[in-house]
Amino acid sequence: MMKSRNLLYFFLLIGLCGCSAITTKHVGTIVSPEPVNYAWWLRTEFVPVHKQIRGIPLHQLDSSWYLASELTSESIPKELLYDNGTDIMKENGVSFSRFGDFNHDGVEDLALIGVYQNETGQRGSFILILTKDTAGNWQKSFLENLGEPNFAALSKNDPMEIWFCMYCDFGVNVLWDKEKGEYGLKSFQGEDED
């Protein structure tokens, strides 16, 4: 009797530890030490660890994905994110996610930046726009691969912009095409100063 009770407690403990580990997993972050004169966001790569995003199983987003993760400020080591006590992403007006009504249909949307790994081990980054369905659940509205699993963030500008570094004058606009009824990405580059 005592042996079976100990086994029961053992499996219960394993189950509880396993569940808590799943819910507290954070995106892996690799910051290359070289080249030292590059800003951290140019040397950072993210590694996904989740099987769903915002409650949506990955196969409903992209059937080739094995793992994917939404990027959050917790993905970045604090010693990099904070410069002299200031959150440099907030200071530059960028974040990894943003709420709004991007297609102007009166329904809340959520845009987010994330990273994925497919079944062959290839990793990349993406922008995902979710919208609420009639039951109030998130569903995929737009998904686009952005390339390598490196830094990308959303501006607070309208139209929304994707920036691949903090102090660059180029990026990608996220645009709603009312005639086609779909989102699209369009590259932009800032004005050259003479």
Strand content: 35-45%
Derived structural class: alpha+beta
Bulk shape: globular
What's the domain count? 1
Number of helices: 4
Q: Characterize the biggest β-sheet.
A: 5 strands, antiparallel
Computed Rg: 20 Å
- What ranges have pLDDT less than 50 throughout 5 or more consecutive residues? 1-24
The helix content is: 10-25%
Rounded mean pLDDT score: 84
Counted beta strands: 16
One letter per element, helices H and strands E, the order comes to HEEEEHEHEEHEEEEEEEEE
How far apart the termini lie comes to 84 Å
Describe this structure in words.
- By secondary structure, the protein is of the alpha+beta class.
- It has one domain (2-189).
- It has helices spanning 2-23, 58-61, 78-81, 88-91, and strands at residues 28-31, 44-47, 52-53, 56-57, 65-70, 82-83, 86-87, 94-95, 97-100, 109-118, 123-132, 138-147, 153-155, 161-163, 170-177, 182-189.
- Strand 13 (153-155) and strand 14 (161-163) form a beta hairpin.
- The N and C termini lie far apart (84 Å).
- Mean pLDDT is 84; it is low at 1-24.
